[in-house]
């Protein structure tokens, strides 16, 4: 679509529900401030000029709380700068690492890969990933490449990096290691396990890794980490997990109250709470209340077809967000995602030693499971959800981990369950929409035929 047509389409959407201050709610922040509805209103108005990439998307702004969530997604650079000026340290993590450990230790968790990918989408320009590949490797995954360019060139800054990485992603270790010329950093390790004996050894190992993290962060901030503060953080973040799961569960209602892109923003994109769990919780609670009201009134989300094909996306959710609109336009809808940003899938226990709880969380994170165990986990999710018509397994270009696991996971699912599965690859935003349209079209048609639909 031509840029002018995109703007026109976007403008027509916005006219359906213009930004009005009284429709917006203030957001509390982790450093004790409140972002007023006026601030959000002005930021989002300026965003229409600053971020041409947003014209590519159809977001349902008539969902209350959705504009506040968009504000949180777009304003990360300004907000982390304010937090830094107020004495908070911004610490780079890896996507799957539980945010509770960081926020509970008094620092702000930032996933550079995700953050950089969102920058590219907002600007509607893939130059960051292209430059990043020139620095790192032509087959670096797009998220790693974009992050490297952004943080190496100084487009955004970290105070420290402390990711926990395992053998599943080998780009991120290299990417962080290469950033050492710019930032001080440490690595925690997170093992892959495949037997009970290994589980015990891994737990011991993880305990020492978590303790070491807490000591080093205390040395950096000058404040010892209080385990009670950690526990309080578990409680706060469990509330966000709970509301996120409730939003995802609404996709299984007869009347689906939000489109696929809106769901991905409220689950995947906000999956590490956008650098502020307090603000994120307030926006998500508003979204959930608005959606419940829609279900009560029988109102479908913008763009959701009548009786759509419900799809679970696994592997890694694709970062080309426009594809979620394409999916809806073709009569599909996202029933849920299982991905690297799966912090919300299960609560963190609040009873017991917080350090032990964190160590257990690391070794029980589904993204780090072996391929067969991962497939069995996906199977249990499909059964629990009950209304999934098909599964799409997506690999990011350059991601050897997902590419290697894909066939084993999909074959194992097919062995246990008669459900259609599509395997796809994705790379930079906007690059292979035509090919995806063809594949979605054939896949959805096959599912409809199987279900005896017209
Ligand atoms: S998509 Fe693959 S290579 Fe990229 S960050 Fe995730 S695990 Fe690593």
Element-level helix/strand string: HEEHHHEHEHHHEEHEHHHHEHEHHEHEH
What average pLDDT do the residues reach? Answer: 91
- Content-based structural category: alpha/beta
Low-pLDDT ranges: none
Q: Could you give the order of strands across the largest sheet?
A: 9-8-10-11
Largest sheet features? 4 strands, parallel
The bound ligands are: iron/sulfur cluster
State the gist of this model:
The chain has 454 residues and is α/β, with parallel strands linked by helices. It has helices at residues 3-16, 37-50, 66-74, 76-85, 99-103, 112-123, 127-135, 142-152, 170-178, 196-221, 227-249, 260-269, 277-297, 322-329, 354-363, 371-385, 400-416, 433-450, and strands at 27-28, 34-35, 90-92, 108-110, 160-161, 164-165, 188-189, 309-315, 332-337, 390-396, 421-426. The chain contains 18 helices and 11 strands.
Topology:
Elements: H1 3-16, E1 27-28, E2 34-35, H2 37-50, H3 66-74, H4 76-85, E3 90-92, H5 99-103, E4 108-110, H6 112-123, H7 127-135, H8 142-152, E5 160-161, E6 164-165, H9 170-178, E7 188-189, H10 196-221, H11 227-249, H12 260-269, H13 277-297, E8 309-315, H14 322-329, E9 332-337, H15 354-363, H16 371-385, E10 390-396, H17 400-416, E11 421-426, H18 433-450
Parallel strand pairs: 3-4, 3-5, 6-7, 8-9, 8-10, 10-11
Antiparallel strand pairs: 1-2
Helix pairs in contact: 2-3, 3-12, 3-13, 6-8, 7-8, 8-9, 10-15, 11-13, 16-17
Iron/sulfur cluster (SF4) binds near residues 141, 316 and 402.
